[in-house]
Amino acid sequence: MGAGFEELVADGEAAPVEGWAFDWLAGRATEERPPWGYARLVAARMATADAALDVDTGGGEVLAGVPRPPRLLVATEAWPPNVPVARENLRPLGATVVAVAPDAPLPFRDRSFDLVVSRHPVRTDWPEVARVLRPGGTFLSQQIGPGTVRELSEAILGPLPPPAYRHPEQAVAQARAAGLTVVDLREATLRTVFHDIGTVVWFLRKVVWTVPGFTVQAYRPALARLHARIRAEGPFVAYARRFLVEATRPAAP
To answer: Between 202 and which of 12, 56, 128, 176 could a Cys-Cys bridge form, CB atoms 3.0 to 4.6 Å apart?
Structure first.
């Protein structure tokens, strides 16, 4: 029979969620990876950069895999529990991790970086990205698409209106309004599978925008219904939406 509802929920509720790694889900949940290979793209760009910035670095997991860091490497992070994790992960690269306030301007001078990257930013401040980029510099970002894992959100919350935010077309318009030139845009829909309710609980605690304000106590009846559904029908399937956007700041005349 396996573990019951209470045991699985307690497991997902007790597991740590600091950083931005998803190793705890191994063997219990899966998500397809985007075809473009963001970490590989970042590593290649970092190898030729002089000064680079990673915005919303999480626990520094992607940046930590860069084999050839630039001369100057800086990362920002706004969620306090992630900051010490990122500093530990990025210490071998000689990177500086700067704790910032959510939605605050980037604490750097104009034209500080020739490369800015960001994986799954909470919100992209396009004017700030443009400001800190050097002329000819590049912004490369993998972003959350509209209605990502909407199926899971609706399983907990009920029917939702069509997503109004995170559309790739909005990102392109905002980049252009900030004076950047969009040179690449790719989209992907990725099958995401949850094999038990414990993984759902852990995911909702970590990816907080899926069900805003989520707690086990507040949503226990919905979790119990989803647990019964998984037991009766098999793993729960949702679809993550991602897009890759690359933009450049025009070179000075």
So the answer is: 12
CATH code of domain 5-248: 3.40.50.150
Say how far apart CA 139 and CA 132 lie, in whole Å: 10
Do the strands 181-194 and 51-54 form a parallel or antiparallel pair, or are they unpaired?
A: unpaired
pLDDT tens, per residue, the chain with 253 residues: 568 999 999 999 999 988 777 888 999 999 999 999 999 999 999 999 999 999 999 999 999 999 999 999 999 999 999 999 999 999 999 999 999 999 999 999 999 999 999 999 989 999 999 999 999 999 999 999 999 999 999 999 999 999 999 999 999 999 999 999 999 999 999 999 999 999 999 999 999 889 999 999 999 999 999 999 999 999 999 999 999 999 999 997 6
- What's the N-to-C CA distance of the chain in angstroms? 69
d(CA 103, CA 221): 34
- Measured CA to CA, the distance from residue 196 to residue 194 in angstroms comes to 6
> Which residues, 6+ apart, have CB-to-CB distance to 221 below 8 Å?
none
Instruction: Report how far Cα 22 is from the mean position of its chain's Cα atoms.
Output: 11
> Any idea which residue has 């500086």 for tokens?
96
**Strand ranges for 145-232 from DSSP E:** 181-194
Burial class (CB in 10 A: 0-12, 13-18, 19+), 177: exposed
Pinpoint the alpha helices (H) of the chain.
5-14, 38-48, 82-90, 126-132, 150-157, 168-177, 197-206, 220-233
Helix (H, G, I), strand (E, B) or coil at 193: strand
Global pTM value:
0.88
